[in-house]
Write a structure and sequence with these properties.
The protein has 263 residues and is an alpha/beta fold. 38% of the residues lie in helices and 21% in strands. Strand 11 (216-220), helix 7 and strand 12 form a beta-alpha-beta unit. Keywords: Signal.
Amino acid sequence: MLSRLTRPQAVAVCALPVVALLATAAFAPLPFSVAQPGLTANVLGAYKGTQVITISGAPTRTTTGQLRMTTIEATGPDQDVSLGDVLDGWFRTDQAVLPRDSVYPSGDTVKEIEAHNTEQMKQSQDAATEAALKYLGKSSKDVKVTLKLADVGGPSAGLLFTLGIIDKLDGDGSGGDLTGGRNIAGTGTIAEDGTVGAVGGVSLKTQAARRDGATVFLVPKAECGDAKAELPKGLRLVPVTTLKGAVDALVSLEKGKGSVPSC
């Protein structure tokens, strides 16, 4: 049949399946999530009317400055993402296209994912409390720490929770604030031994941090490259690998003495 058609007609006939495939792909749901900068919250203060960090069993300090945990917002696990959404997000600096399985566990229902994120947050809060008290030489038998942050899940606020507890109990160790009065943001998981872990979505979190007034951003050292990729003007990156390293960097920054690492 094609031999009896002119060349333009034959090309048009052959192109039809390709066009149909592209049209189908344009509207078919794809296994991706589109993420953007999310909320930030000052762990030294209140969020949605509830104090984030509450401590009993030990004297606490009145702090100045802010320690802001950061998040990303991603399309939901049950929300369809089309080719158009992917292409739009791919070329925008304020969005990122991520495999859905890297954002949400594959095969889980929305309720199961929410439960998983809630459990990760609880584990992160427990680890943050243990890491902070261990760093300060205090016992969880004597000091009770309660952490509350509504509508946020996952483990990535661990480092900021830990620093918030330390600032409320001990500040910089010599009467000053760990923040030095600055608006400091950051991200990173925390282990009970003080190890800081990578989290993902850092380039979007730096944008959220700067949007909400932060001038310093604590980033897991392994993610320096990602953080520098779309770094907002006016935001200083401080890479960390351990809780001690993070505290030392903040104290050096506050006092203007010693070295402050950079990416």
